[in-house]
Amino acid sequence: MAKNFNSSKSNSSEVDGGGPDDTQGTDYNTTRSNNTEIDKGGGGSAKSGAVDHNSTRSNRGASVGEGGGGTGVIGSTFGIAKTILMAAVLLTAAGVGFDLYQTYNDAIDLNLEDHVTDADFALNGDKTEINGEISFNIPEMGIFEKKILAQVHVTVLESSPTTDGYYSFEYTLGSGEQTYEFSLTDLDPVTVAKIDAGEDLELEYTTSITVIYLGVELAPATTDMPARIVTVETD
Predict the structure, then answer these.
(1) More exposed terminus of the chain, fewer Cβ within 10 Å: N or C?
(2) pLDDT tens-digit readout, 84-94
(3) Three-state SS for 222?
(4) Which CATH architecture has domain 112-232?
(5) What Å distances lie between residue 184 and 199, 205, 232, CA to CA?
(6) Tens digits of residue pLDDT in 174-188
(7) What are phi and psi of 187, to 5 degrees?
(8) CB 44 within 8 A of CB 20
């Protein structure tokens, strides 16, 4: 019997699920048609459906493009932040350099002796200690706020063994007049004998002032004031 491919294609499309007649030859058109129908009705079966490689490549390309764009934005943001940070560092360094220069000039031009009062000394009530006080009223130096470290060394002349003391004070420049107190204790026997005898005592003291900048002592900006001798009455 002759094969009628057109007739077989039409008959197969009318019968749902029917197989080919044993008396007829294989209808290849019908087979391709059934495969197409199964693909549509099977919801994307891995065995019956064809894989669209073009779609897969397209999706992957879109994903890579999106990820690359995000990385570019982040890199650009970090680049801008780095530029701003470097600019801030350079400006700060320039400001600090100018401020230090101005501070050194102010320290040279300023006569600190005019802004540090002479120290006053007196015996306490029971005459066992020598109390002292010193005041500072130093204007600002440079542009930024700074402090000074004031160190006072006091010695009782003719004491044996030597009675002396070292005292340190921090003062903020431009903060107005500030007074600091200190005491000499554990007086030596010679000094005690003078006090008991009603003899006056002579004390020598020296003062040095060092500018503190950002927590660092600027040694070149240290000023040593001349030694002074004062008399302390004991009667």
Answers:
(1) N
(2) 555 555 444 55
(3) strand
(4) Sandwich (2.60)
(5) 18, 12, 13
(6) 899 999 999 999 999
(7) -65, 145
(8) no
